């Protein structure tokens, strides 16, 4: 268990879960497309975490480009829910290799059907202008904030246990947590610190894939907060629809990163979140955008996604 106020003691095998996710097996080339296979750690509810599929698709794409080309953007659509009991095949199409950029398209497939489509771009190192939106000020030290394990570890429920002890990232909420109850004040803003529980050696594109994994944890949080809802709201239904990221500067997922998100609009059973990752040095690491489907029992009866 993680101790309060500052201990960063890793839970057993927590970072190994991430290593498992990022370890794909190359299968074959079929019709000029490379095929990879990834597996899924145990999941509550039997569905695959969307961030896992994003990360694995990026690993597959990155394996087909030169090492000196670094991931700078990705755009994905979640087409169907994944089955945690079945391996996922990743079919990579090498769309283009130019002088500076390489573009890849990835289809994640199970049971002969596509569950995710992703297009991403890699760039050779280049010099140019360098400026960014400053990091928000006045954020507390992450070591002074209770961990998710401390907040949820005593709750005897499979979803709480999944969030408390089966995630490879240590998430510490700066905003009032909305895990098991609504926030006292509604807000369209959310902020947290996060990093892996222990050190992990990854290449540049693997770091980006790991960050994409972590980015999918939080986009619904500002939507729930603004609506006066919480993650365990009875009867709530949520599903990520699409996900985009832009990777600006070097990433180290085993060091604390500030993740700030806002909800500019929610309508028609869909909510949008925009987020930024910052290093403790104040550098803007990445930008995130996601739209998700969200329904409650009070909404009009509508077909599921």
UniProtKB/TrEMBL annotation:
Coiled coil: none annotated. InterPro entries: ACOT8-like_C, Acyl-CoA_hotdog, Acyl_CoA_thio, HotDog_dom_sf, TesB_ACOT8-like_N. Residues 45-123 form the Acyl-CoA thioesterase-like N-terminal HotDog domain. It comes from the Bacteria. Keywords: Hydrolase. The keyword Kinase does not apply. Pfam families: 4HBT_3, 4HBT_3C. GO terms for molecular function: fatty acyl-CoA hydrolase activity. Residues 159-294 form the Acyl-CoA thioesterase-like C-terminal domain. GO terms for biological process: acyl-CoA metabolic process; fatty acid catabolic process. Belongs to the C/M/P thioester hydrolase family. This is Thioesterase family protein. It comes from Auritidibacter ignavus. The lineage of its organism: Bacteria, Bacillati, Actinomycetota, Actinomycetes, Micrococcales.
